[in-house]
Write a structure and sequence with these properties.
This protein has 12 helices and 23 strands. With 493 residues, the chain is an alpha/beta fold. Strand 3 and strand 4 form a beta hairpin. Helix 1 crosses helix 4, helix 2 packs across helix 3 and helix 5 crosses helix 12. The longest helix is centred in the middle third of the chain and has 20 residues. The radius of gyration is 23 Å and the shape is globular.
C-alpha cells in the first residue's frame, strides 16, 4: 500500500513511499490520482479541500487550507496554516476508560534500602555548580579502578548552572539535581560543590529533603586541600557498597518509564508513537507508571488529554500546564506555533497540531492521573504529565529527574544523544533503523509492512523488560552521557 489512511474522517492520507505525479493510489476507501510528486511521509488530499476549511488528520484538525486544495494534491506548509491561538478557556468533558489490569510481568532490578528500584547499578558524581565540572571529571577518572563487574559504571556529570541564578530559575536547577540525587539507578551519589555558589550544598539540601547518608555523600571543594583525592576516597567507599548490590525479581509495577519523541517524521504518529501508547497502556495495566512531557507539543491536542483527566482537579492542573507554557512563549514575544522544526517539515509534518496529534499518542489511552511541575518526582501510579519543553535533551533529563528509570524515545530522523538513564531509541521507519543500527534500538517501521500492533506491542514490552533487567543495553548507553541539560528561564547575573 502506497498511502495510509489514519482515520476515516481524515481529509488527507500519508504516502508510505515516494509517489510520482500521475500515479493512482488507493487509501482503502477511494482511488486517488496524484497531481504532484509526493515524498514519503507527506500528506495527500483525499478529497477537495476549500480555502479556510480545516484539514483533518487523526480525526482532528491540523490547521486550515490557505487556498483551495484539489484531491490528489500535496498538502504541506505551502497550502495549510496552523489554527493555534494564544490562551484558551477549556471545559472539562471527561472521556476516558479504565485500563484493564493484566497478569504480572517481572524484570530483574536493584531494590534500594528505601524500597525504590533501579535498573542500573551506577555511581554518580554530581556538581552543584559549573565551576567544579573539571573536578568531578577528574574524580571520575581517578575512581575507575574501583568499578567492579557488579557496578554498571561510575559517571560524573556537568552543567553550566548553580550560580548567578535567581528565584525560580535557581530553584529549577536545584530541584533537577535533587531528582537525580534521589534516582534509584544510582547506588551511590557524590555531590560536589564549590562553596561560594548561590546554589550551594546547604541550599540543595533544602530541596533534597530526607536522604540516606550512606548512599549520598557531599564534598565542598573550598573546604579541603585536595578535593580530587578526597572525592576519589569517597567514591571508593560508595563503590564498595554498590558492589554488594544484586539484581532481584521485581514486578513491572515498579517501573516508571518516560515517553519522548524527537526528529519526528510523517510516520511517527502512525508507527512509533502509537507503539509507545500501546506500551504505556500495557505498563499501566501491569501496575506501573509512565510520564508524558513536551508541553509545547501538546498544543493543538491538549483537549484530548484534558478530557482523559481523572478528576476536575487534574483537569485544572492540565489547563494551567498548557496555558502556563503558552504564557512562557508570550513572555518572550515568541509565537506559540513556531514548530515543527525544519527536520520535522522535511519528514512531512506541516503544523504544530500535526506534530502534537502524533506526539500525544505516546500517552496511549489511560486516564491522566497527575500533573508534575519541572523538578517534581512522580507520586501516582499510572500516566502523569510533566512540565518541560520539547527540546530532546532538556525534556529527557526532566523525565529522568522525575523518576523515570528509562526513557523510550521515538524518532523518524535519528539522534545519538543519551541521558543519565537508559534512553531507548525507536525508529518510525525501517529505512532509518537499517541506516543507523548504532543509534536505533527498535524498529517500529515494521508496522508499515503489515505487522499488527498487538504482536509488535507484546514484542516491545518484552524488549523493554529485557533492557530494564540489564540483559540488553540501549545504544545510547555506549555513548558519552556526561552533560546535563537543565531547563533555564531567568536572569543570569
Amino acid at each position: 500500500m502506497k498511502a495510509f489512511r489514519i482515520n476515516n474522517y481524515d481529509s488527507v492520507i500519508v504516502a508510505t513511499c515516494d509517489i510520482s505525479r500521475g500515479e493512482t493510489v488507493t487509501d482503502g476507501l477511494d482511488d486517488i490520482e496524484i497531481l504532484s510528486d509526493i515524498p514519503s511521509g507527506h500528506k495527500i488530499a483525499s478529497r477537495d479541500i476549500k480555502e479556510n476549511e480545516n484539514v483533518i488528520k487523526y480525526g482532528y484538525p491540523i490547521g486550515h487550507a490557505i487556498r483551495d486544495i484539489k484531491k490528489g494534491e500535496h498538502v504541506h506548509t505551502h497550502n495549510i496554516r496552523s489554527n493555534l491561538s494564544s490562551l484558551l478557556e477549556y471545559t472539562y468533558e471527561p472521556n476516558f476508560k479504565e485500563i484493564t489490569p493484566r497478569e504480572p510481568k517481572y524484570f530483574l532490578g536493584y531494590r534500594r534500602p528505601d524500597n525504590s528500584v533501579g535498573i542500573r547499578n551506577e555511581i554518580w558524581i554530581i556538581p552543584t555548580v559549573g565551576c567544579v565540572n573539571s573536578i568531578v571529571r577528574e574524580i571520575e577518572r581517578g575512581s575507575e579502578k574501583y568499578k567492579t563487574e557488579n557496578i554498571d559504571g561510575i559517571f560524573s556529570y556537568n552543567h553550566p548552572y548553580g550560580c548567578s541564578q535567581l528565584g525560580d530559575d535557581l530553584l529549577m536547577t536545584l530541584d533537577h539535581l535533587a531528582g537525580l540525587i534521589k534516582h534509584p539507578n544510582a547506588a551511590g551519589v557524590l555531590v560536589v560543590g564549590l562553596g561560594c555558589e548561590n546554589g550551594n550544598i546547604d541550599e540543595l539540601k533544602k530541596r533534597l529533603g530526607d536522604y540516606d547518608p550512606n548512599r549520598v555523600r557531599f564534598l565542598v571543594c573550598q573546604q579541603c586541600s585536595d578535593e580530587i583525592s578526597e572525592g576519589i576516597s569517597i567514591v571508593k567507599e560508595l563503590a564498595a557498597m554498590a558492589d554488594l548490590c544484586r539484581r532481584e525479581k521485581c514486578p513491572a509495577s515498579e517501573l516508571t518509564v518516560g515517553l519522548k519523541c524527537g526528529g519526528s517524521d510523517g510516520f511517527s504518529g502512525i508507527t512509533a508513537n502509537p507503539l509507545l501508547g500501546a506500551f504505556s497502556d500495557t505498563l499501566i495495566a501491569l501496575g506501573g507508571s509512565t510520564i508524558l512531557t513536551e508541553v509545547p507539543e501538546m498544543f493543538g491536542a491538549e483537549t484530548i488529554l484534558m478530557n482523559r483527566c481523572r478528576s476536575v482537579q487534574v483537569f485544572d492542573k492540565t489547563v494551567d500546564l498548557i496555558n502556563g507554557f503558552k504564557k512562557y512563549f508570550m513572555r518572550y514575544g515568541e509565537p506559540i506555533d513556531e514548530n515543527p522544526s525544519p527536520g520535522n517539515k522535511d519528514g512531512g509534518i506541516s503544523t504544530l497540531e500535526d506534530k502534537s496529534l502524533g506526539c500525544t499518542q505516546k500517552g496511549g489511552n489511560a486516564p491522566v492521573e497527575d500533573v508534575l511541575d519541572y523538578g517534581e518526582q512522580i507520586r501516582t501510579k499510572g500516566l502523569s504529565l510533566l512540565r518541560a519543553p520539547g527540546n530532546d535533551l532538556v525534556a529527557s533529563e526532566a523525565l529522568a529527574a522525575a523518576g523515570a528509570q528509562l526513557i523510550l524515545f521515538t524518532t523518524g530522523r535519528g539522534t545519538p544523544f543519551g541521558s543519565p538513564v537508559p534512553t531507548v531509541k525507536i525508529s518510525s521507519n525501517s529505512k532509518l533503523a537499517a541506516l543507523k543500527p548504532s543509534w536505533i534500538d527498535f524498529d517500529a517501521g515494521r508496522l508499515l509492512s503489515g505487522l499488527d500492533m498487538r504482536s509488535l506491542s507484546e514484542e516491545f514490552t518484552d524488549y523493554v523488560l529485557s533492557v530494564a533487567s540489564g540483559e540488553i543495553r540501549a545504544s545510547s548507553e555506549k555513548l558519552d552521557k556526561h552533560g546535563l541539560a537543565i531547563f533555564k528561564d531567568g536572569i543570569t547575573l
